[in-house]
Amino acid sequence: MWRTFVTVCRLGSLLAAVAELNHSQSAISRQIAGLERQLGMPLMERHGIAGVYSHVTDLMRQKLGDRLQQRWTTLTARRTQSS
Predict the structure, then answer these.
(1) Full-prediction pTM beyond 0.70?
(2) Is residue 21 part of a domain?
(3) Which of 7, 29, 46, 70 shows its CA 20 to 30 Å from the CA of 35?
(4) Considering its fold, how many domains does the chain have in total?
C-alpha cells in the first residue's frame, strides 16, 4: 500500500500510477483507501478521478518517498552484489 501511495504522490495522479504499477485504477484506489483506514485520516480529497493532497500528505509523501528510495537503492545494491 505504501509503495502505491508514494507512486501516486510522486507521479501526481492515479492514472499515471496505473500505468507505472500496471494495476487497475480501482485496485490503486482500494489500496489508498485501505491506507487511509489504517491511518484514520484521509490522504486525498477525491474529485472524480483526480485527487488533491492535504498538507499532511505532502509531508508524509516527502519523508516516505525518501525512505522508500533509500530502501530500493539498498535492495538493488544487494541484488547486484549477490549476482
Answers:
(1) no
(2) yes
(3) 70
(4) 1
Across 28-41, average pLDDT:
87
**Long-range Cβ contact pairs of 27-31 (< 8 A, separation 24 or more):** 28/4, 31/1, 31/4, 31/5
Amino acid 73 reads T
- How confident is residue 27, by pLDDT bands cut at 50, 70 and 90? very high
6 neighbors 66 (Cβ within 8 angstroms): no
**Is 82 domain-assigned?**
no
Instruction: Kindly state whether residue 37 falls inside one of the protein's structural domains.
Output: yes
> Where is pLDDT greater, at 54 or 26?
26
Closest by Cα among 41, 67, 63 to 54: 41
Range of the domain at 57: 2-77
Q: Is the per-residue pLDDT at 50 higher than 60?
A: no
